[in-house]
Amino acid sequence: MLLRTVLTVISVLIIGVCSVAAQITAIRAGNLIDPETGTIAQDQIILTDQETIIAVGPSSQVSIPADALIIDLSDRYVMPGLVDTHDHLALTYNNGRDGGSYYLTTVLDGTPIRAIQAFSNGFQKLASGFTVVRDLGNAGNYADTALRQAIEQGWVPGPTIINSGIIIGGMGGQFSPTPERSFLIYPEYLDADTHDEIIKAVRQNILYGAKVIKIMVDAKPYGYTVEEMELFVSEAAKSGLKVAGHVQTYEGAKRAIEAGIWSIDHDGPLNDELHKMMAAKGIWRAGTETPFTSYSGSQRSFDRHVEKLKNAYENGVNLTFSTDADYFVPGLTRGEITINFLLTWKAAEIPAPDILKFMTINGYKACDIYDERGPIKPGFPADIIASQENPLEDIDALRDIRFVMKDGRVFKQNGIVTPMAFFHSGPERGWNK
What we know:
- By secondary structure, the chain is of the alpha/beta class.
- The chain has helices spanning 2-22, 95-98, 102-108, 111-127, 143-152, 195-207, 226-237, 250-259, 272-281, 299-314, 334-339, 342-347, 352-359, 361-366, 420-423, 426-429; strands at residues 25-34, 39-48, 53-58, 69-80, 82-87, 130-135, 160-163, 167-169, 189-191, 213-216, 243-246, 263-265, 284-286, 318-319, 384-387, 401-406, 409-413, 416-417.
- The chain is globular, with a radius of gyration of 22 Å.
């Protein structure tokens, strides 16, 4: 009896495994873009299971299983998903309520509502083709970790999240509260002013789910020294994490470059000298190329961003597409706000193939996931998007993403978001991912 029961269980397991293995999706990619080389392979087949790419190649070489689900993108331009290397999904300025002050937003919005806002913003970005977001703080009491875990466990659809947890800085972070209101700094910022506090702050963020460490380099006159930032780098490296540095001054940015942090975030103080230093050290640039639109920026500020971006490109700096698009605009999704940053890249006269590379390949590398996620190749998660027109010729083709697949599951097809495949699969994907 016992033997029969065991054999029955084994049979069920085998049938279950075979059933899952048989659920293959075949994508007919008429134009498969390789952003790394800026080339297109025509008439390709991409085979995926429920999560992973299992084969890629010409239709003459890749056989489609008889029972495969076929997705016809033969008239589309297929490519890996886009990356935003600097955003704050759990922070959304509301001009109608708080005048656009993120200081007041953090006071009025608790962590639970910000986690829901983060899901909504991530959902909107995924709909626009952004399959990876480096989420750099301002998320209350680890709402960013909650979002990442919810996506990874399959409870909700969203981009892959590379989250920082709470931003670490010298006393006060970016805030300047009165002595009676000093408690408002946490949980937006972790004060770390000594070597012991730096180590503890890094470890706290790692303990509570951070995948990158974000520091305030110079938000206060007592900014971090080169030695202190080297300590951040070495402590984060023990757990395999990189350090992103928010910079506001020339001196702070120079110290951060000398310390060898992974990425310089925001471009305000960057100039030709600093760009040359960054290029020599291979440091990533996650600028804030805010476009001049009816809802944000100014012509003067826009011109500065364009000039700095052009200089960084000419100096061969490792460029990424990043936005800091942490605000609400009536009538626009967070994804539409994000893609509008193309205005700055176009104004800087950077060729479309390079922009696409920076938005994909460089993004994966800056997020430190290039060896495990991003490119369309066998063994990698199936994160695939498609546009109607060719972004190698006109980068604005990315404004009309018609198809999005995330982790092998179709999120958007024929321009229509259909996320139910994600919501139905939560518990069974579970903790074993």
